[in-house]
Amino acid sequence: MNRREFLKNTAKAVAGVTVPLAAIEILSPARVQALKADSSVRWAFLVDTYKCVGCGLCVKACKNENEIPYEANVTRTWVERYVLTKDGKLYADSPKGARDGFTSAKIDLGMGKFQDIRKEDIKKAFFVPKLCNQCENPPCVQVCPVGATYQAPDGVVLVDRTWCIGCGYCIMGCPYGVRFFHPKYHTAEKCNFCYHRINKGLKTACVQACPFGARQIGNIKDPNDPVAKIITTERVGILKSEFGTKPQVFYIGLDEEVR
Amino acid sequence: MVHGELWTLKELFVTPNEYIYWSVQIVMYPFMTGLVAGAFVLSSLYHVFGIKELKDIARFALVFSFALLFAAPVPIILHLQHPFRGINNLMTPHFTSAIAAFGIVFSTYGAIVASELWFLYRKHFVEQSQFLKKKQDKDFGEKLFYLIYTALTLGSFDISKEAQHKDEKAIKILAAIGIPVACFLHGYAGFIFGSVKANALWMTPLMPVIFIMSAVVSGIALCMLTYIVTMEIRKFLACKKQSPTYSPECREEIKSVEVNVIKMTAKYLLFFLIFAISLELLDLIFRGYTATKSWDVLRSVIYEKDFNSIFVFQYGIGNLIPFILFLLPGMTIRRAVVGVVLVMFGVFMMRWNVVIGGQAFSLTFAGYMHYHLPIIPHDWETLKEGLFGALAVFIMPFVLFFFLTKIFPIFGLKESH
Ligand code: SF4
Ligand code: SF4
Which of A111, A253, B262, B280 is deepest in the core (most CB within 10 A)? Predict the structure, then answer.
């Protein structure tokens, strides 16, 4: 074999290896199932911040339902507390994701420090529950190098635990900070609208647990759906619209302080 | 403990799932790939542009680049939560993801470096193989080397003048293709960060260019350092050992070659350093000037929380001091060593400030996270993503280089190129 032939053969071999690798996409079973799903459904979530009292029952229910260890300092959904004082300062916290509710009036500043705010200094205060926005244009799906994070036709963004390599790129890519590594499986984890429940016609665990009706889930493509009606006819807000991710979690009473 | 909790300290309003997820290994990753790309560009300066003064270091840099190449993916693998699934990246590549391109860019680049090396050393392989073949009663080592060299010739034994001429041409072409590929390899490492829109510090189209420039700087610096160390060892051997090469003249000769090469290379280092620093400063000024919503929190990180690591370590110790050292007339080897070590430190700090600094503030723009590098390991995770993991990655290419030079000798070759 002379050099010319050698080079030719090498080029062929390289092309032969890379082309099929790029062309073939191995589908995981979970993904195939998702692709078959009915796309006349688009799940959307509605949060009413006026109704939320920060009891944290939703967070607790979510942890139980989705096997996120109670003690672990990560959670699929959490509740934030915002306190605006009369002198224009903004305080916010979410101790342990509010899994036990807000039991103290002191604001958690981290590193073991707390801020006491007198009642008469408060201008306004409210609670904001957060969860994965199941974005229409999800950056987490865009950046996942192996396609372990993918979007089902009904809009819900799912993670394939058997395929995730644990690079954390999706965690970096999500502008909402909802993702984390599962303490046990060591794969990317986040809220999936209780996919196993909504597909059976049940409500998500957090919706069911909320005693005040602050959380609701519905099908935005169904005109008779009560949630869809509110979202399409009333003034609702989304988080961080500037990122262009088109969130499908809508908020009633969203404040500009909420980020 | 969840991943990241161990080395993250939170301050003020940080959301519950936020931690420093990309730790020191993700600092090492662009640092190491940068060294690969930089070393290659240095070697190509001679092969493509025919800068004669760099001839001595060009061959050296190419072999070193090859050694570094093997170390570049190690930090990523050490960082993965499921390292054994790393191969999934090649089985289901998602081209919307910058990391997914890694396998392809990286192997293309590897193939170029390997073939260039092959053309460069083909004559040596043939000669060695023929020499060992003729030799009577070979010992074990010689038998082994005979096998290795014969295999490396790939059956191409023609070392006539024309054949060598063709080799030279191939080297030139490969070196020329290699430059954009090397830049791409590193530019895309910058793209991994620059394309994350969720991160206010990373999100800039300048990121890939900034990364390329600092990569070239760090690669040249590392090659100079290793070159000096190797030459010093040779000098030491030439005067200490009762070797056949022993002679005072030989020692002087090595010394003058060394000084010349270093002086020349330092000029190129300086040139690229100016580019790298200007780009970074431009980026900084631009952010302050346009002052978008995120600027408040960025400013507090850049000018307050990370002031030392950005302005003192990166710009001061890592850029300004070596800049002055190289500008002063009458360059000496000792000064060059201090200079290149500081330059490499500066580039490392730049990677650090991008990767760790980019995670130092919360997505709420109202809280901060502090990273504490695990030093004393107490489990697998703190070992691989701690000081020792990073050191292991850094030392690896030197060990590889040592073994590679047994097969690809970098000095004393009767050469044609
Ligand atoms: S909120 Fe984050 S994790 Fe959820 S779909 Fe959007 S980008 Fe992905
Ligand atoms: S951590 Fe898993 S899901 Fe997230 S980007 Fe990496 S491979 Fe994809």
Answer: B262
Question: Residue A67, Cβ neighbours under 10 Å: how many?
Answer: 11
Which amino acid does the sequence have at A73? N
More confident site: B342 or A3: B342
Max distance between CA atoms of chain B, in angstroms, equals 77
Residues of chain A with pLDDT under 50: 19-24
Q: What is the pLDDT of residues B160-169, one digit of tens each?
A: 888 888 988 9
Which residues in chain A are contacts of B192 at CB distance < 8 A?
169
The gap between the terminal CA atoms of chain B, to the nearest Å, is: 58
- In the structure encoding, which two tokens stand for residue B68, read together? 């570094």
Pocket of ligand 1 (CB under 6 A): A 132-135, 138-140, 157, 174, 176, 178-179, 190, 245
Bridge pairing between strands A113-115 and A122-130: unpaired
Q: Ligand 1 centroid to B198 CA: how many Å?
A: 11
Q: Which residues contact B417 (CB under 8 A, 6 or more apart)?
A: B47, B120, B167, B168, B171
DSSP helix/strand/coil, B243: coil
Question: Within chain A, how many helices (H) and strands (E) appear?
Answer: 8, 12
* Cα A97 to Cα B161: distance, rounded to the nearest angstrom: 74
Contact B15/A at CB under 8 A: yes
Q: Coil, strand or helix: which one is A249?
A: strand
Q: Which of A28, A100, A133, A169 to mutate to test the interface with B (most CBs of B within 10 A)?
A: A169
Would you give the DSSP letter of residue A180? E
Contact assignment for B3 to A176 by CB distance below 8 Å? no
Q: Give the 3-state secondary structure of residue A113.
A: strand
* Chain A residues in contact with B166 (beta carbon < 8 A): 3
Residues of chain B contacting residue A164, judged by C-beta atoms under 8 Å apart: 81-82, 85
pLDDT digits (tens, 9 = 90+) for A90-147: 999 999 999 998 988 888 888 888 988 898 999 999 999 999 999 999 999 999 999 9
Chain B CA closest to residue A98? B16
CB within 8 Å: B15 and A92: no
Amino acid at residue number A5: E
Q: Is B151 part of the contact surface with chain A (CB cutoff 8 Å)?
A: no
Task: Render pLDDT for B89-120 as a digit per residue (tens, 0 to 9).
Answer: 878 778 888 888 777 888 888 999 999 999 99
Collapse the DSSP code of B117 into the 3-class scheme (helix H, G, I; strand E, B; otherwise coil) and give the result.
Answer: helix
pTM above 0.90, yes or no: no
pLDDT for the residue A149: 94
CB B403 within 8 A of CB B37: no
Cβ–Cβ contact A58 with B under 8 A? no
Please work out whether the CB of residue A165 comes within 6 Å of at least one atom of ligand 2. Answer: yes
pLDDT in tens, B29-64: 999 999 998 888 888 888 888 888 788 788 888 999
Distance between Cα A232 and ligand 2 center (Å): 33
Residues 6+ positions from B136 with CB-CB distance below 8 Å: none
A85 at interface of B, judged by CB pairs closer than 8 A: no
Tokens 């307050």 found at = B304
What is the rounded distance in angstroms from the CA atom of residue B9 to the CA atom of residue B13?
12
Chain A partners within 8 Å of B123 (Cβ): none
d(CA B334, CA A166): 44
Nearest alpha carbon, ligand 2 atom 6: A167
